[in-house]
Specification:
glycerate kinase, domain 1, six-stranded mixed β-sheet, two-stranded parallel sheet
Length: about 290
């Protein structure tokens, strides 16, 4: 429970996935290379589905069979940086301090011979999801471009930026799509229910209110977006106008981090259920000007 609470606090603070994993690795006897260390006498091949931008093996799933370049001091600094040191459970603080002061052994490092017979192989990542989306949209007549598979940042800010791209895309003649992959974050300030992908789409929809013939979709490939049951959301210029017609203020929902409630009421929430896999977040911008 202590690790779950600490992870929740980090995610709500806006910490990056690398920062979250740095802390988690130093609270585990399996992550951060410890599993690999325990299997050092065996030949090990780890097949990995990557949900981490840039495919850093030591961060994916907190790197159970990969050496860990981070330290207890790094974990301590992260908790301090996000003002979480006094909020995490006492057992977590004790573990981190014991590590910083040398009373607990550091995670195995890259020069540890335990990893000589371990191969970590990435078998899929968000680039594969982007390619699959591009193939499907191309089959429907869209001219597609995978813009990036390295997108990171605060979801609402990314959403505003992508709305600008989509407005430009909608001025082109014909059917066009831009596809992006990455991992977004949300700094939780309100008490609503939502997730990073829904928040991104909500922020984008506010800026699309005067556009036409376009839409934005963003989903978590695991089928679970934040603390909601939705995978993500889709919106078009009509989304904002529908909200106003129903007497809803999209900006207020965004401020309260209540994107799931917004899309449940206006329409646009996407429910897939858990997919059983996870390669990060997938975002599609599409326009059809005829």
């Amino acid at each position: 429970m202590d690790k779950i609470m600490t992870t929740k606090l980090l995610l709500e603070s806006g910490a990056t996935i690398d920062e979250v994993n740095t802390v988690r690795k130093h609270l585990s006897l399996i992550k951060g290379g410890w599993l690999g260390k325990k299997l050092s006498k065996a030949r090990v091949i780890t097949l990995i589905l990557s949900d981490v931008v840039g495919n850093k093996v030591e961060s994916i799933g907190s790197g159970p069979t990969s050496p860990d370049p981070t330290t207890f001091k790094d974990a301590y600094d992260i908790l301090r940086r996000y003002d979480l040191w006094d909020k995490v459970p006492e057992n977590v603080r004790k573990r981190i301090l014991d590590g910083v002061e040398g009373r607990v052994e550091e995670t195995p490092k890259p020069d540890d011979p335990a990893f000589k017979k371990i191969d970590n192989v990435i078998i899929a990542d968000v680039g594969d999801a982007c390619s699959a989306a591009a193939d499907y949209l191309s089959s429907k007549g869209f001219r597609c471009e995978v813009l990036s598979k390295f997108v990171e940042g605060e979801a609402s800010q990314v959403g505003v930026f992508l709305a600008g791209l989509l407005r430009g895309l909608s001025e082109r003649k014909g059917k066009h799509a831009l596809i992006l992959g990455g991992e977004y974050t949300v700094t939780v300030r309100g008490g609503g229910i939502g997730g990073r992908n829904q928040e991104l789409v909500l922020a984008s929809s506010i800026k699309l209110k005067d556009s036409r013939d376009c839409a934005i979709l963003s989903v978590g490939t695991d089928g679970v977006d934040g603390i909601s049951d939705a995978a993500g959301a889709i919106a078009d210029p009509q989304t904002y106008r529908e909200a106003i017609k129903f007497g809803l203020n999209p900006i207020k929902f965004l401020r309260e981090n209540d994107s799931n409630e917004f899309f449940n009421r206006v329409g646009g929430a996407i429910y897939t259920g858990p997919t059983g896999t996870n390669v990060g977040d997938l975002t599609i911008l599409a326009s059809d000007s005829g």
